[in-house]
Amino acid sequence: MLRTGGAIGLTPYPALLLVLLAVCTYAIIVSLLRIRTAYNWKNAAKKFNGEIKLKNVTTPELIHGHIKDRPFVIETAVSNEDDAPYHHTRGAMPISNPSTLIAGLRHKSWREEFQSRKTDDLPFVDNPEFSRLFLSISSDQETFSRILTAKMQSTLMKYNDVEIYIHADEIEWKRYGLVNDYRSLTTLTDLIYDLALEIDALPFTPIMSSTRDQREALINKGV
Q1: Does some domain include residue 1?
Q2: For a tag site, which of 14, 95, 181, 189 has the least CB within 10 Å?
Q3: 100's torsion region: left (phi>0), alpha (psi -120 to 50) or beta?
Protein backbone atom coordinates (compact mmCIF):
# COMPACT_ATOMS: atom_id res chain seq x y z
CA MET A 1 0.00 0.00 0.00
CA LEU A 2 1.24 3.44 -0.90
CA ARG A 3 1.45 5.68 2.14
CA THR A 4 1.68 9.45 2.08
CA GLY A 5 2.35 11.77 4.91
CA GLY A 6 3.16 15.34 5.74
CA ALA A 7 1.20 18.56 5.31
CA ILE A 8 -0.24 19.41 1.96
CA GLY A 9 0.00 23.12 1.10
CA LEU A 10 0.52 25.60 -1.67
CA THR A 11 3.61 25.17 -3.76
CA PRO A 12 5.85 28.25 -3.93
CA TYR A 13 4.54 29.14 -7.39
CA PRO A 14 0.93 30.05 -6.50
CA ALA A 15 2.21 31.98 -3.46
CA LEU A 16 4.61 33.91 -5.68
CA LEU A 17 1.78 34.65 -8.11
CA LEU A 18 -0.29 36.09 -5.28
CA VAL A 19 2.56 38.39 -4.29
CA LEU A 20 3.06 39.52 -7.88
CA LEU A 21 -0.69 40.11 -8.23
CA ALA A 22 -0.72 42.27 -5.09
CA VAL A 23 2.27 44.30 -6.31
CA CYS A 24 0.73 44.81 -9.75
CA THR A 25 -2.60 45.84 -8.23
CA TYR A 26 -0.88 48.38 -6.01
CA ALA A 27 1.09 49.78 -8.96
CA ILE A 28 -2.10 50.11 -11.03
CA ILE A 29 -3.91 51.93 -8.19
CA VAL A 30 -0.99 54.35 -7.72
CA SER A 31 -0.84 55.01 -11.47
CA LEU A 32 -4.59 55.68 -11.63
CA LEU A 33 -4.36 58.10 -8.68
CA ARG A 34 -1.51 59.96 -10.36
CA ILE A 35 -3.44 60.18 -13.61
CA ARG A 36 -6.47 61.47 -11.71
CA THR A 37 -4.33 64.06 -9.94
CA ALA A 38 -2.92 65.36 -13.21
CA TYR A 39 -6.44 65.40 -14.69
CA ASN A 40 -7.77 67.45 -11.77
CA TRP A 41 -4.90 69.93 -11.96
CA LYS A 42 -5.49 70.36 -15.70
CA ASN A 43 -9.18 71.02 -15.06
CA ALA A 44 -8.29 73.55 -12.37
CA ALA A 45 -5.98 75.31 -14.80
CA LYS A 46 -8.77 75.32 -17.38
CA LYS A 47 -11.25 76.75 -14.85
CA PHE A 48 -8.94 79.71 -14.19
CA ASN A 49 -7.81 80.03 -17.82
CA GLY A 50 -4.30 79.31 -16.58
CA GLU A 51 -1.38 77.23 -17.76
CA ILE A 52 -0.12 74.05 -16.12
CA LYS A 53 3.45 72.80 -15.85
CA LEU A 54 4.05 69.09 -15.22
CA LYS A 55 7.15 67.46 -13.75
CA ASN A 56 6.24 64.43 -15.86
CA VAL A 57 3.14 63.04 -17.53
CA THR A 58 1.29 62.38 -14.26
CA THR A 59 2.94 64.71 -11.71
CA PRO A 60 1.85 68.38 -11.63
CA GLU A 61 4.26 71.11 -10.58
CA LEU A 62 2.37 74.38 -10.86
CA ILE A 63 -0.52 76.30 -12.37
CA HIS A 64 -0.18 79.99 -13.14
CA GLY A 65 -2.48 82.54 -14.68
CA HIS A 66 -4.86 85.32 -13.76
CA ILE A 67 -8.18 85.47 -11.94
CA LYS A 68 -9.67 88.53 -13.59
CA ASP A 69 -6.72 90.96 -13.38
CA ARG A 70 -4.92 89.33 -10.46
CA PRO A 71 -2.06 86.87 -11.13
CA PHE A 72 -1.95 83.67 -9.12
CA VAL A 73 0.01 80.47 -8.77
CA ILE A 74 -0.83 77.00 -7.43
CA GLU A 75 2.26 74.91 -6.86
CA THR A 76 3.87 72.05 -4.98
CA ALA A 77 6.58 73.13 -2.57
CA VAL A 78 8.85 72.01 0.23
CA SER A 79 9.74 74.16 3.22
CA ASN A 80 11.83 73.35 6.26
CA GLU A 81 9.68 74.20 9.24
CA ASP A 82 10.88 73.03 12.65
CA ASP A 83 13.97 71.63 10.89
CA ALA A 84 11.84 69.04 9.08
CA PRO A 85 10.88 69.05 5.38
CA TYR A 86 7.24 70.02 4.93
CA HIS A 87 5.86 68.88 1.58
CA HIS A 88 2.76 70.87 0.71
CA THR A 89 0.62 72.45 -1.97
CA ARG A 90 0.08 76.19 -1.92
CA GLY A 91 -1.93 78.75 -3.82
CA ALA A 92 -0.83 82.38 -3.73
CA MET A 93 -1.49 85.78 -5.26
CA PRO A 94 -0.19 89.33 -4.72
CA ILE A 95 -2.06 91.92 -2.66
CA SER A 96 -1.56 95.67 -2.24
CA ASN A 97 -2.55 95.47 1.46
CA PRO A 98 -2.72 99.22 2.21
CA SER A 99 -3.30 98.61 5.93
CA THR A 100 -0.36 96.16 6.13
CA LEU A 101 -2.55 93.52 7.73
CA ILE A 102 -0.42 90.51 8.69
CA ALA A 103 -2.19 87.32 9.74
CA GLY A 104 -1.84 83.58 10.07
CA LEU A 105 -4.63 81.03 10.40
CA ARG A 106 -4.38 77.25 10.59
CA HIS A 107 -6.48 74.29 11.66
CA LYS A 108 -5.49 73.09 15.12
CA SER A 109 -4.07 69.64 15.71
CA TRP A 110 -6.33 67.18 17.52
CA ARG A 111 -4.31 67.77 20.70
CA GLU A 112 -4.67 71.56 20.49
CA GLU A 113 -8.36 71.18 19.76
CA PHE A 114 -8.80 68.89 22.77
CA GLN A 115 -6.96 71.32 25.03
CA SER A 116 -9.05 74.24 23.79
CA ARG A 117 -12.18 72.46 25.01
CA LYS A 118 -10.86 72.86 28.55
CA THR A 119 -10.25 76.61 28.33
CA ASP A 120 -12.56 79.59 28.39
CA ASP A 121 -10.81 81.58 25.67
CA LEU A 122 -13.03 84.08 23.93
CA PRO A 123 -13.79 83.19 20.29
CA PHE A 124 -12.03 85.42 17.77
CA VAL A 125 -15.03 85.23 15.40
CA ASP A 126 -18.77 85.02 16.03
CA ASN A 127 -18.70 81.29 15.29
CA PRO A 128 -17.34 79.59 18.46
CA GLU A 129 -16.94 76.27 16.64
CA PHE A 130 -14.62 77.88 14.11
CA SER A 131 -12.64 79.50 16.92
CA ARG A 132 -12.33 76.12 18.61
CA LEU A 133 -11.00 74.46 15.46
CA PHE A 134 -8.63 77.17 14.24
CA LEU A 135 -5.65 79.04 15.62
CA SER A 136 -5.41 82.68 14.52
CA ILE A 137 -2.71 85.30 15.06
CA SER A 138 -3.01 88.73 13.46
CA SER A 139 -1.60 92.23 13.67
CA ASP A 140 -5.23 93.42 13.78
CA GLN A 141 -7.46 90.60 14.99
CA GLU A 142 -10.62 92.70 14.89
CA THR A 143 -10.15 93.58 11.21
CA PHE A 144 -9.11 90.05 10.29
CA SER A 145 -12.16 88.59 12.03
CA ARG A 146 -14.41 91.06 10.20
CA ILE A 147 -13.17 90.28 6.70
CA LEU A 148 -13.19 86.52 7.35
CA THR A 149 -16.83 86.05 6.44
CA ALA A 150 -19.14 83.29 7.67
CA LYS A 151 -19.03 81.73 4.20
CA MET A 152 -15.23 81.64 4.27
CA GLN A 153 -15.27 80.10 7.73
CA SER A 154 -17.71 77.42 6.58
CA THR A 155 -15.43 76.60 3.65
CA LEU A 156 -12.28 76.38 5.77
CA MET A 157 -13.94 74.08 8.30
CA LYS A 158 -14.13 71.40 5.60
CA TYR A 159 -10.33 70.98 5.68
CA ASN A 160 -8.45 69.65 8.69
CA ASP A 161 -5.00 70.74 7.48
CA VAL A 162 -5.57 74.11 5.82
CA GLU A 163 -3.46 77.19 6.52
CA ILE A 164 -4.02 80.80 5.43
CA TYR A 165 -1.29 83.44 5.56
CA ILE A 166 -1.58 87.14 4.82
CA HIS A 167 1.79 88.78 4.21
CA ALA A 168 2.59 92.39 3.43
CA ASP A 169 2.36 91.79 -0.30
CA GLU A 170 0.94 88.27 -0.74
CA ILE A 171 -1.86 86.00 0.46
CA GLU A 172 -1.57 82.21 0.33
CA TRP A 173 -3.24 78.94 1.31
CA LYS A 174 -1.40 75.75 2.17
CA ARG A 175 -2.30 72.11 2.62
CA TYR A 176 -0.07 69.17 3.45
CA GLY A 177 1.21 66.96 0.64
CA LEU A 178 0.08 66.95 -2.97
CA VAL A 179 -3.51 68.17 -3.14
CA ASN A 180 -5.12 65.97 -5.78
CA ASP A 181 -8.78 67.00 -5.86
CA TYR A 182 -10.22 69.65 -8.13
CA ARG A 183 -12.60 71.10 -5.53
CA SER A 184 -9.84 71.90 -3.04
CA LEU A 185 -7.60 73.49 -5.66
CA THR A 186 -10.33 75.78 -6.97
CA THR A 187 -12.29 76.46 -3.78
CA LEU A 188 -9.30 77.57 -1.72
CA THR A 189 -7.92 79.69 -4.55
CA ASP A 190 -11.30 81.39 -4.95
CA LEU A 191 -11.35 81.95 -1.19
CA ILE A 192 -8.02 83.77 -1.04
CA TYR A 193 -9.08 85.83 -4.09
CA ASP A 194 -12.16 87.00 -2.18
CA LEU A 195 -10.00 87.70 0.87
CA ALA A 196 -7.55 89.64 -1.30
CA LEU A 197 -10.36 91.93 -2.44
CA GLU A 198 -11.33 92.60 1.18
CA ILE A 199 -7.72 93.27 2.19
CA ASP A 200 -7.04 95.65 -0.69
CA ALA A 201 -10.18 97.63 0.21
CA LEU A 202 -8.91 98.38 3.74
CA PRO A 203 -7.83 101.96 4.51
CA PHE A 204 -4.18 102.96 4.27
CA THR A 205 -2.23 102.67 7.51
CA PRO A 206 1.38 103.90 7.57
CA ILE A 207 3.83 101.50 9.17
CA MET A 208 7.61 101.24 9.39
CA SER A 209 9.21 98.38 7.50
CA SER A 210 10.93 97.17 10.67
CA THR A 211 7.56 96.91 12.43
CA ARG A 212 6.13 95.02 9.47
CA ASP A 213 9.03 92.55 9.54
CA GLN A 214 8.60 92.04 13.29
CA ARG A 215 4.91 91.24 12.78
CA GLU A 216 5.73 88.74 10.03
CA ALA A 217 8.27 87.00 12.24
CA LEU A 218 5.92 86.90 15.20
CA ILE A 219 3.07 85.36 13.19
CA ASN A 220 5.31 82.83 11.46
CA LYS A 221 6.62 81.74 14.84
CA GLY A 222 3.22 81.74 16.53
CA VAL A 223 1.24 79.85 13.90
Answers
A1: no
A2: 14
A3: left
